[in-house]
Amino acid sequence: MDNSPALKKLEEMIMECSRLDREINCFVESVDEITAQVRHEPSEAMVNLRNSVKERFTELMAGVTDAELQRHSKVVSFKDSVRKYAMQAGQTAAENEEEELDEDIAVTQSQTNFICPLTQVEMVNPVKNKKCNHYYDREAVLEMIKARHRNKKKFRCPKVGCGNTDVQESDLELDLVMKRMIQNHKRQTGKT
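Now predict its structure.
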């Protein structure tokens, strides 16, 4: 939870409110208990009614802990509200970053080739080769690597002029930015 002074002050107020609520409940409970006991006793017992209620109230309040107050419905509700607000604020910030990323992607999109050099089809799950920085569709490149290894051969990067003669599965990494660029490109060109 945020540790801002205003939020701490608000949390203290909610704790005080729950403490007062608990006090009221303890008082009502002690009055109910004592009056139930006294109903069946002679009228002389009514004289000590005030002291009996006070003693029982003190006993009940002694059992109230901060941990119990933390579980009070008002405190729990307050903390949930703050947590939800923080998550929404975080999502809003993430959405703003996402929009900025979309704008950056739009600028570079026109300069990028989304066609897999293996399948000659637009990539769906693009992976980047960490050694030579070329992109392939994940399924196609993994299938080719396995096929070449079954024949005891190395898989060479299919990009024309690339000197990477041994592409390994460990060299590949999923590129979410490229995937997003492809999705944006599809949206803009009307492809599904």
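The chain has six helices and three strands.
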